[in-house]
Design brief:
The complex is a heterodimer of chains A (182) and B (221). By secondary structure, chain A is mainly α. Chain A has 8 helices and no strands. Helix content of chain A is 71%, strand content 0%. Chain A is elongated, with a radius of gyration of 19 Å. The N and C termini of chain A lie far apart (49 Å). Chain B is elongated, with a radius of gyration of 34 Å. The chains are: A mainly alpha (182), B alpha+beta (221).
């Protein structure tokens, strides 16, 4: 492969080769995208094991659907959309998340800072998981996975202004939730 | 869905804090300030913010509230090392599943790759009378399309073979010569392909689709 290829061109090349039946090319695509796919899934689901399954299923879906991918979007955009949809489907299937519980604190004593920080993080995780999917997905993409509003809109198949509006509502809910903690 | 999480320590155990206001007394939307903080532009004050105490106080407060989120966003998550192998072994299984026909037997199963069947079909078709050219075309069947896409590198050019379990679909695009009736050519092709696939590969459940793309007129001599 020419080193001059940028990421998108390299992806295009690998997709073509993967479609030709070169599994090694698909393996390279997995190598390139698994990190971001995994980050999205962990933040979408709040559970490392479920995230792993969702990423795995998404890549298998991508392999199966490779002949339907025509390169009008970047491979990453297409893949991350599959990941997000997988996560949303996982959430619909499972029963309500059990309420995250704090480790028991020694009675009457003021919890030390570590325990408090841990409780605060758990509250944040619960708040993120409590967001409706249509808000959680854009928030996860932009805030936790480093995509721009434009990229997130493309991944989610919606407009930038919709993404902005949903993220604004998500942020507001998180702020409200963190007011007792920070 | 209940996502209540732990209860905050400082005074909101019984009553949740009041809703955050939409706008500050100066008219600035809280959402805008939150976006500024979340996008990491806390210190880039607008002209109004530079002189507005409401905005400055709100920015500080939002920054404090947003800090745990920013911290979480900064955590770099690494996929587990075994993830890629798991994905690729599933993909390899699928790739094999797609392009082998399996002939079950008492003493073990026989798998024949699609490209083998394609080669047999193409050679058989090319021997039929009235056939000038045999070309591959992907089948309309969904399974066959997947097989076609997944096996392009492995198959012989000249025919497409779709396989699902013991069912085989062979798609042939044919250019016939001008001198013979097309149905007769098609029958001849089909019979030869079926006979050879049965004789050489032992597969019986075969459909042969033939598309006549063109008729070749012999050059004037």
């Amino acid at each position: 492969m020419a080193p001059a290829m940028d990421d998108a061109a390299l992806d295009d090349y690998l997709v073509r080769r993967a479609r030709d039946g070169y599994l090694d090319a698909f393996e390279e695509l997995v190598r390139h995208h698994q990190g971001r796919a995994y980050t999205i899934a962990v933040r979408m689901l709040g559970d490392a094991h479920e995230a792993e399954d969702a990423v795995q299923d998404a890549f298998v879906d991508a392999w199966r659907g490779l002949h339907r991918f025509h390169g009008d979007a970047a491979f990453g955009t297409w893949l991350y959309r599959i990941v997000v949809n997988r996560c949303l489907a996982t959430r619909r299937r499972r029963r309500p998340v059990p309420v995250l519980t704090l480790p028991e604190q020694p009675g009457g004593e003021r919890p030390d800072e570590q325990i408090e920080a841990k409780a605060r993080d758990e509250a944040l995780h619960a708040a993120i998981q409590g967001l409706p999917g249509e808000q959680r997905a854009p928030l996860v993409l932009v805030t936790f996975s480093g995509f721009s509003y434009e990229e997130a809109a493309e991944i989610l198949g919606t407009t930038v202004s919709t993404v902005r509006g949903r993220i604004a509502r998500a942020r507001k809910a998180l702020l409200q939730r963190m007011r007792g903690w920070a | 869905v209940t996502h209540s999480g732990p209860t905050p320590p400082n005074g909101h155990r019984d009553q949740p804090p009041a809703e955050l206001p939409e706008r500050l007394p100066c008219g600035t939307a809280l959402d805008d300030l939150t976006e500024q903080i979340a996008d990491g532009h806390a210190s880039q004050l607008t002209e109004h913010q530079g002189s507005c105490t409401h905005c400055q106080a709100a920015l500080l407060e939002i920054e404090r509230l947003w800090a745990p989120v920013a911290e979480l966003a900064g955590v770099r998550l690494l996929p587990p090392p075994h993830l890629m192998n798991k994905i690729m072994s599933l993909v390899r299984e699928l790739a094999l599943e797609v392009w082998h026909v399996v002939l079950p037997g008492d003493r073990g199963h026989t798998r024949i790759a699609a490209r083998v069947l394609a080669a047999i079909a193409r050679r058989a078709a090319a021997r039929a009378r009235g056939v000038r050219v045999v070309l591959g075309r992907s089948s309309q069947a969904r399974v066959a399309v997947a097989a076609d896409e997944a096996t392009r590198a492995h198959r012989q050019p000249g025919s497409a073979v779709g396989i699902a379990g013991q069912h085989v679909v062979v798609d042939l695009a044919v250019v016939t010569t001008y001198d013979l009736p097309i149905p007769r050519v098609a029958d001849d092709v089909r019979n030869r392909v079926l006979a050879d696939l049965r004789r050489l590969a032992g597969v019986r459940d075969v459909a042969v689709n033939i598309t006549v793309d063109d008729v070749s007129v012999p050059p004037e001599s």
